[in-house]
Amino acid sequence: MSSFVLSVGKAAAAAVYLGAAVLEVVGDALIRKGMRGSGLAVIATGALVLASYGVVVNLLDVDFSRLLGAYVGVFALVSVLIGRYWFEDAVPATTWVGLAVILGGSLIIHLGRAG
């Protein structure tokens, strides 16, 4: 399946990370909604969306540890923002500080030189 792998620059990789994070968070949100009364069809849809996240994030031609290490920051950011604006969660200051720490680590991994 190597023909399905992308060799892209850092900006394009960030866009792929963002797309994958949206799919992962929305997939999990659908599963959550399905488990809280919307039913099995919503859970199944969420599972399919989660599977698509895995395909999208793995399109990048990046070592697995760097791939997911860098991705986790984007995922954390999208998770907090969707929690805040879709689920209307009250996000405490400590979560924002923790998010900043995660994003710092993610940037170090993403922008660092390949070993």
General description of the model:
With 115 residues, the chain is mainly alpha-helical. 77% of the residues lie in helices and 0% in strands. The chain has one domain. The protein is built from 4 helices and no strands. α1 packs across α3 and α3 runs antiparallel to α4. 21% of the residues are buried. The model has no long low-confidence stretch (mean pLDDT 88).
Which features does this protein show?
115 residues, flat, 77% helix, single chain, 0% strand, mainly alpha
Report a brief summary of the structure.
The chain is mainly α and 115 residues long. It has helices at 10-38, 40-57, 64-85, 93-111.
Overall, the morphology is flat
Work out the number of β strands. Answer: 0
Secondary structure: helix percent: over 70%
Q: Strand-residue fraction?
A: under 5%
Number of helices: 4
Radius of gyration: 15 Å
- Count of discrete structural domains: 1
The largest sheet is: none
Q: Are there runs of 5+ residues with pLDDT below 50, and where?
A: none
What is the H/E order? HHHH
Q: How far is the first residue's CA from the last residue's CA?
A: 24 Å
